[in-house]
Amino acid sequence: MPAITASQVEEWNGKADKTVVSSSADGLMSKEDKTKLDGLKGVRYGTDIPTDMKDGELFIHIVEETE
């Protein structure tokens, strides 16, 4: 296995901006996505989408892996 050089580590560490995001400034995600996340009112999960979902709710669809 080849060795990882210091310059490779420096290059990898320099890829992403590590600035914290806010609703007015981009950072590790866009400010628009941050605003959407801040606006979530609830997280629901299950195998079927609820019929009574409301604006601001996030649904995580659980699926079973088939072989």
Question: What would you call the shape?
Answer: flat
How would you characterize the largest beta sheet?
A: 2 strands, parallel
Strand order of the largest sheet: 1-2
Radius of gyration over all CA atoms, rounded = 19 Å
Report how far apart the termini are: 33 Å
Contiguous uncertain segments of 5+ residues: none
The helix content is: 10-25%
Number of helical stretches of at least 4 residues = 2
What's the mean pLDDT score? Answer: 84
Q: What is the number of beta strands?
A: 2
Helix- and strand-based class? alpha+beta
Fraction in beta strands:
5-15%
Query: What string gives the helices and strands in order?
Result: HHEE
Could you characterize what this model shows?
- The chain is α+β, with helices and mostly antiparallel strands.
- The chain is built from two helices and two strands; from the N terminus they run ααββ.
- 0% of the residues are buried.
